[in-house]
Amino acid sequence: MISQEHKDLARWAMKYALSKGCSDARISVYSGTNNSFDYRDTQLEKLEQSSENGMSIQLYVDGRYASYSTNRLDKNELERFIANGIEATRFLAKDEFRQLPKPERYYKGDGKGLEIYDYDYSKVSVDDKMALIKENAAEVYGKDERLISVTASYSDGISSSFMITSNGFEGESDTTYYSISADTSMKGAGDSRPQSYWYDSAVFWDKLEKKNIGKIAYERTVRKLGQEKIASGVFPMLVDNTQITRLLSPIIAAIYGNAIQQKNSFLIDKIGEKIISDKFTLTDDPHISGARGSRWFDGEGVATKKRTVIENGVLKMYYIDTYSGLKLNMEPTIQGPSLLNCVHGNKNFDQLLASVEKGIWITGFNGGNSNSTTGDFSFGIEGFLIENGKAIKPLNEMNITGNLLELWKNVIEVGNDPKMNSSWRIPSILFDKVSFSGK
Amino acid sequence: MKRRDFLRAGSMVAIGTVAFPQIIRSQITNLKEDLPKMLNHFRVTEADLRKVMAIALEKGGDYADLYFEHTFNNYLALQDGAVNRAGSNIDYGVGIRVVSGDQTGYAFVESTSMEDMINAARTASRIASGSAKTPPVKIDEKVFKNHYPIVKSWEDATIQAKMPYLQKLNDRIFELDKRVTKVNASMNDSTSYILYYNSEGTLCHDYRPMAILSGLCIMQQDGKIENAHSSRAARKDISFLTDEVVETVAQEAVKNTALLFNAVKPKGGEMPVVMGAGGSGILLHEAIGHAFEADFNRKKTSIFSDKLGKKICDEHIHVVDDGLIDYDRGSVNFDDEGVAGQRTYIVKNGILNSYLHDRISAKYYGVSPTGNGRRQSFRYIPIPRMRSTYMENGNYTEEEIIASVKQGVFVDNFTNGQVQIGAGDFTFFVKSGYLIENGKLTQPIKDINIIGNGPKALADVTMVGNNLKIDQGAWTCGKDGQGMPVSQGLPSVLVKQLTVGGQ
After folding, report:
1. Residue A66's domain spans which residues?
2. What's the rounded Cα separation, in Å, for the pair A250 and A247?
3. Same domain (yes/no): A232, A175
4. From the CA of A339, how many Å to the nearest CA of chain B?
5. Phi/psi at B168 (5° precision)
6. Banded pLDDT at A207 (limits 50, 70, 90)
7. How many whole angstroms separate alpha carbon B102 and alpha carbon A84?
């Protein structure tokens, strides 16, 4: 939570900035608390604790705009900081499109109701957190002579921010997080030492998975033993729910207003057009209670609401903030995604797997990138060869290459198993006709 | 907003050329004489340092250090023809670390008041559980050779002094090719005051500059849009900004973009790859550099864990990780644990010669630290990181290397790479290159990933060119959630076989 003192400081900074010649301003103060512990094999390896505070100031001066931030919150220093910032901003070129949002677009509620803050945060004892990682490491340690090392990590924290604008917005958001992960490393064939991990994260301590994180990391490592590459070819590709966001994120990046306005997108002028398979429908659902990603307002203070991003393959919106909206001469929507939700299919992961006669299941991407103006992609992958509905051989050191829109046109089926601890709840998806390069 | 990543991405470490868009002063000019100024800058005395140190060691840690940092970051950018956006960030604080065996306690505070530092020292001290140790009474001030002297600091550079260079970059890119439709030009500069004190009594300070100029060029031809990027980075003061650097970035951005309209994707599969001199150092960074970082080896999770002193590639190959190149993005006068910057042979005569050490791993292996203990800021613990990683020259000309390949690819422009430390699988993404057919460069290629296995790829380097070039781009390496400025270089080399993406 932001202290009253820091809220007052933000209000003072606003008054000061306006008195020194700003026509408008947006000022935020933020604070964070973070704790983390790593436990390797049989001992605590690392403990880290910190708390931090800062202020960020966006200034609109004589039709010009700049943004400044500092963690030096002493009033005398802030006075100099703001005055210097205003002075510096005056040298920039004018930009008529830099404006605060119209006040009617702001969120005006009391900030309650999202349930993304654990009021019992301070009640969780350090001993309980330590015990958690010790137990998860012990699930694995010494259980297999091929095991080289297991590290279980825990972290938690609070992050809070308070934002005001000169045209009437005032909003606060506070959220807690807890996260646990495990990494295991094993002796493989030759010199190879395959590694894998598992994790969970939650907004509430009570919702955090406390068992089997080490065990699942171990199982995910064991199944990689004996990885090899197979001959190049075109196969169906099953991407599981831990990896699927990698293939969606370039599409989301391509529908930001800035990308559209800068002609740095492969989805320019595509609103209302069918861009991908009609089996895919994506909504932005910002008000789900207790969910990571939920929020009442975006970084400009603009109220969020449920929106359809892609409906049966048809592109329904761009993410347009105030600046891009004015530049593009389009109605602004919202700055960016909050909580992405995908309309589920009927099959769970095992059923999707069972439906594949011959194909490849992707369990990890290794590097690669995509072209932001053409949608062409090429990624390194690891996973399994699927034959007759079964994963029969671990694969690595292969690439997939193609075009994102072509790929997403070739969706065979969308699963029903999104990862609920993520703000992008996208299930496993089966694609057809993907080019794999290997031997 | 400032929350750390929830997740460490397993054993993945990655590098990319994304330049992150991102005011008290007591400017340091002479590292030899300015310790009192630096102490004053952070408003601490030698007696304060000893007092905080005593608290850090009150539970019996083996080693402790205090890392003070005050960083000024500035950002300036051009879009749609006008320099119309700017930003600055100020970060100030001290990180306190206590080491007990190979266990680490860490806390940082954003103030240098005694009360806050004592609390942080107490938190970090809890990693140990023994009886108090006494820090040395004598302070041992160390002065290191300065590889990036500042004549005129970025702290003295006004926005109006920088603006014309961005405007020029924009104008030059438009002039160079009629197909250009958009330019994004930006520059970042930063200046860091660093003061370091450890439980051995070492006290040292540094004044670190950094600058990046980058240009993104977007072109349109026959309804098709392509873009490419170029950047230059250096640990340099205002003298970094010249008409020459602007011209270099403009030329390169235009050339890299124009090439893409005629480029194809190759047919994928295993084939010989000629890595052109310069940015191809990404091969070293990913294929072996990370796997030589000693933390992975100390924990035995690196594929090179058992290879120290063993022959791993051709005896004519020497690979260096160098912190001493004047004004280089990866250079360090001393690392972030008070160890002098050095030039470390990781591979000499084809033999794995040294890991890249921080203090913890050096102690574990019983060797001297190599000056690779680096951290993103006072918010993070130092860990082994690369500096400037490159291969020394061999005897072949680039023409000879290309001529030796019947069918393969030539690559020299990359955006990012990644490696899995234990499996050894590494990748890098090729923005552009060429097909090699019968010993000649033919059709341009673009947007393909190349994947290989570290030890095998190194053993497969069969020809090394005589044209070593250290790439001056803005490379930032990511590991354990910490971004670190690095550089890399390579003479042209032939890797006998890698798996190339394609259709």
Report:
1. 4-222
2. 7
3. no
4. 17
5. -65, -40
6. very high
7. 45
Q: Are residues A174 and A267 in the same domain?
A: no
* Residues forming beta bridges with residue B134, ordered by sequence position: none
Say if residue A298 is in the same domain as residue A214: no
pLDDT tens profile A111-165? 999 999 999 999 999 999 999 999 999 999 999 999 999 999 999 999 999 999 9
Q: Is A178 found in the same domain as A147?
A: yes
> Amino acid identity of B296?
F
B104 close to A (CB below 8 A): yes
Three-class SS of residue B45?
coil
User: CA–CA separation, B100 vs B123, rounded Å?
Assistant: 14
* Amino acid at site B43: R
| Residue where a domain terminates, one of A222, A250, A280 | A222
Q: What is the pTM of this model?
A: 0.94
Instruction: Say whether residue B427 is in contact with chain A using an 8 A CB cutoff.
Output: yes
Question: Tens digit of pLDDT for each residue in B371-397?
Answer: 999 999 999 999 999 999 999 999 999
pLDDT of B315 over the 80 cut: yes
Give the integer Cα–Cα distance in Å for A109 and A282: 26
CB contact, 8 Å: B6 with chain A? yes
**Which of A52, A156, A203, A421 should we substitute to test contact with B (largest number of B Cβ atoms within 10 Å)?**
A52
- B interface test, pick of A262, A269, A295, A403 with most B CB neighbours within 10 Å: A262
CB B226 within 8 A of CB B261: yes
Q: Does one domain contain both A191 and A329?
A: no
Does A426 lie in the same domain as A356?
yes
Closest CA to A426 of A325, A337, A342: A342
> What are A266-284's pLDDT values in tens digits?
999 999 999 999 999 999 9
ipTM: 0.94
Same domain for A317 and A194: no
CB-CB under 8 Å, B110 with A52: yes
